[in-house]
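ok so for the tutorial part 2 we go from a plain amino acid sequence to predicted structure tokens. step 1 is just haveing the sequence, like this:
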Amino acid sequence: MDTDTQDEPPLTGRRLHGDPDPHTQVERMIRVDHAGEYGAARIYAGQLAVLGRKPVGDTIRAMAEQEQRHLETFDRLVVERRVRPTALSPVWHVAGYALGVATAMLANARRWRARWPSKT
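step 2 — the prediction. this is what the tokens look like for a chain of 120 residues:
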């Protein structure tokens, strides 16, 4: 058994040189979570553009509404805590929507192919 490390204090609560202070860590967490919620909301918007009138549209809409509530929470936290939002918001705006459209189109195409018998 290695006894050399038994006398060392645990690292819990200790910051190393270069570690951000707790305030900065919270800011980073809020910024990342806000970006994630924004991206999710944009993905659902893209999916609804393709599948909104299909039977699955109601399910996607319900999930989008839940993500919207999450986004509103982080929008509020960004303002209250004066956190700089991610600089990549314009990218998430376009990329999230495009990802939603693409995945919805793939799901729609897959469903379409499943309806037609293969002649192979």
